[in-house]
Amino acid sequence: MNSALTILVVEDQNRERVALSRMLKSEGYRTIAASNRPEAVRAFKDPVDLVVCDLRLGNDNGLEVLKDWRDNKPSVPVLMVTAYGDIHSAVEAMKLGASDYLTKPLKPDELLVLLNRYLPMRAREKKQNAINIGGIGRMIGQSDRMREVFDQIHRVATSDSTVLIVGESGTGKELVASAIHENSRRRNAPFIAVNVTALPDALIESELFGYVRGAFTGAVESREGRFRAANSGTLFMDEVGDLPLTLQPKLLRVLETYSFAPVGSNLESQVDIRLIAATSRVLPEMVRDGQFRIDLYHRLNVLTIELPPLRDRPSDIPILVEHFLVDCAKRHLREVPGVAPELLNYLQQYEWPGNVRQLRNVIENMLVMGDEKVLTLRNLPKYLSGNPLSEQHPSGKGGFNLENLEKEAILSALKKSFGNRTHAAHTLGISVRTLQRKLKLWGME
């Protein structure tokens, strides 16, 4: 992935400029060299992804180069390099918009950590442009299964028929319903969502259909229900399989006549709605067991969209992780960390019984509880260290051994880098100091 990324090195000392450029090239980056401000400005025409600039540039000032890039290419991260005793200039650079700074003499492992921190998003943008990641509404995905779902959403959105969305809990059924509404002719009308399981059985009827004053004790005034609130728009009923049998005939009648009587009233009320229902239960089995009316099932099952579980589309996990990291970092006022390769590999192999909802919660947990610039296996929540649904990972007495996996990942990275600890640490997304500490802890120095 690094081969597509270009770094501009701005350094007036020829020896240091050549050394830094050579080191970056050895890591797979393309480099452009500049020895002064005019040469750095000329690089505007090149597709630069990150700038490494010395604060002292002979007769020029690195802060002016920083301003040039902030004014003309504000999305490009700029790392400033300063002498050890000139920290106040580094602080000034940060105020002017520098992404970060390094002190001389440059330490390769520290630079690589910063590159891993600031370049993943640039790489993700290029990758998205290259593979044309699909998406609709608030949903993203690149797997064949999700592209099929996106195509189905576009198709059903053009009609006004009832839609049934089926899939495990946490797969994003409400997002599908919302995307259908946003792409339909009803997009400017209300989208009303109700989760049947969140309502007590005694209140479901009044919540859905409303009630009139005096209909029951406590009904001191009339109230419209969700069907009336969704008039002209879309009503989304989540977990429709949990609708009590006693209310299923009334829902069936609404779908056939688009009329209903509020609780306590004999007067019919007409509505113009589109119903989208969803369930994580297997309705044909419920029909067979007498728990769901067959006529209502056929009335709901006009157009069906089946959402795949996350374990069946692991290729979507990297872009979901990136999306959740950016979103959660913004909400929690954190900087977006990088993700170590072994962590991403683990996330792609995990079975995810809670699907996308669980993945998002895990990402938020790691972001909030950790303060590292690069997330690793150590940041995983404790409950995720063992996966009873998966047989892909080694497990010892008491379940999955995270320390063994970490040890295997480090030894594998060292082997692939022929013992080069700097390269191995960069591959793992950790510092050389952390790698050395682990090896010392395990007696493997």
Overview of this protein structure:
- This protein is of the alpha/beta class.
- It has three domains: 126 residues, 3-Layer(aba) Sandwich (Rossmann fold), CATH 3.40.50.2300; 173 residues, 3-Layer(aba) Sandwich (Rossmann fold); 130 residues, Helicase, Ruva Protein, domain 3, CATH 1.10.8.60.
- Helix content is 44%, strand content 16%.
- The protein has 19 helices and 20 strands.
- The strands form seven sheets. Strands 2-1-3-6-7 form a five-stranded parallel β-sheet, sandwiched between helices.
- The longest helix has 15 residues.
- 33% of the residues are buried.
The gist of it:
This protein has 445 residues and is an alpha/beta fold.
Number of helices: 19
Distance between the termini: 30 Å
CATH topology of the largest domain: Rossmann fold
CATH class of the largest domain: Alpha Beta
Report the major sheet: 5 strands, parallel
